[in-house]
Amino acid sequence: MPIVPDGCIDIICKNSKLFLSGLMEFTQIVAIEPKDHYFGIQFKPYAVAMLLDEDISVFNDELILLEGVNSDLTKELQKIFEMDAKPYGLMNDYFEKFFADKEVEFFVLEAIELIKTSHGNITVMALCEKLGIHQKRLERLFVALVGVSPKKFSKIVRFHSTHRMLSEEGM
Asked: What's this model's pTM, rounded to 2 decimal places?
């Protein structure tokens, strides 16, 4: 199963083992056998920074066991697996409760949305003008909360948009 750069970070469950798939700049392959049971939870990068409460850029282009990153989160998610064979609703409830009281840096969320709606075809200067924020501040916030600069994030979104368009056209 290819993990194609899409500007998101995932938690992947494969046979009850939890993996963190950091923000990808390059396609990676995860071996999935017919007997394997797997699913993924896709997060906007900013959300994972709040979830892990650390600099997420260290996880870029990495697929690592979640246990090594955050054992408490791993234990909480494993409890949910033990309660239900199809834990999707329970996980959604868990994450909604977790994020309910978190403070959000709206400049970053709005910048992510502007980049995605433009399919990555927006300059950092144009982002700053639309948001009314200094370029250095936006770049600093982006690297800390998204894991890459706004320019690199735009490239990833541009790649994903092109990949999706070509896939939909059967190319």
From this structure: 0.77
